Recover the amino acids of this structure.
């Protein structure tokens, strides 16, 4: 599959590397020449320019892309990139800060395929560490879905497994991973679970106990 990633900061660069390691074709767009140079040094096709501009996205190959990720720290650029991506029948994923008011979120959510909140994942990991717990339901995302974090103890069934291979079935999915005392990020395909790691999960509200059993025994 082909992806256009707008923004080569912490979130965008990590996402681009994950996609490439899984064998996908990734082109990066950023309006910062140093970030574009870094992306090229790391082996990516990269375009310098405003990712919310059609000519720039066309140069990045949006016409043949399967999905566009607006992953900069600027929601206006992200939204514009996603709206242009939809015109080319791309799946659209938009990064947003959780500080935005509910009505702004709802406006964005109606127009893009998925919204992600990197700050919320970081906060989830921090809360788990501060509370000293190993399984915490952070909050409801919808009436059916809940964001949950897990700290993996010694002897848990998932220790030694690749994060990408953890199968929760219809009960949920692993959304992010972090080593002890490190922030959560999108896991690389080769990442293996170790004791003390943290996992962020999207789970069905009525499936928390089943998920806990699968992960922790």
């Amino acid at each position: 599959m082909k992806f256009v990633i707008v923004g080569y900061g912490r979130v965008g660069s990590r996402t681009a590397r994950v996609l490439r390691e899984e064998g996908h074709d990734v082109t990066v767009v950023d309006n910062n020449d140093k970030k574009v140079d870094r992306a090229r040094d790391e082996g990516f096709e990269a375009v310098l320019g405003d990712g919310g501009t059609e000519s720039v996205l066309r140069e990045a190959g949006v016409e043949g892309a399967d999905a566009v990720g607006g992953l900069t720290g600027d929601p206006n650029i992200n939204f514009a990139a996603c709206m242009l991506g939809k015109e080319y029948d791309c799946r659209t994923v938009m990064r947003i800060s959780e500080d935005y008011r509910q009505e702004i979120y709802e406006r964005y959510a109606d127009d893009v395929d998925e919204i992600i909140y990197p700050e919320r994942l970081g906060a989830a990991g921090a809360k788990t560490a501060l509370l000293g717990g190993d399984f915490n339901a952070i909050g409801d995302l919808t009436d059916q879905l809940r964001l949950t974090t897990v700290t993996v103890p010694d002897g848990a069934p998932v220790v030694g497994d690749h994060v990408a291979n953890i199968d929760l079935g219809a009960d949920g999915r692993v959304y992010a991973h972090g080593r002890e005392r490190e922030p959560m990020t999108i896991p690389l395909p080769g990442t293996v679970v170790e004791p003390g790691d943290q996992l962020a999960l999207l789970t069905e509200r009525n499936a928390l106990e089943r998920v806990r059993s699968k992960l922790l025994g």
Summary: The radius of gyration is 18 Å.
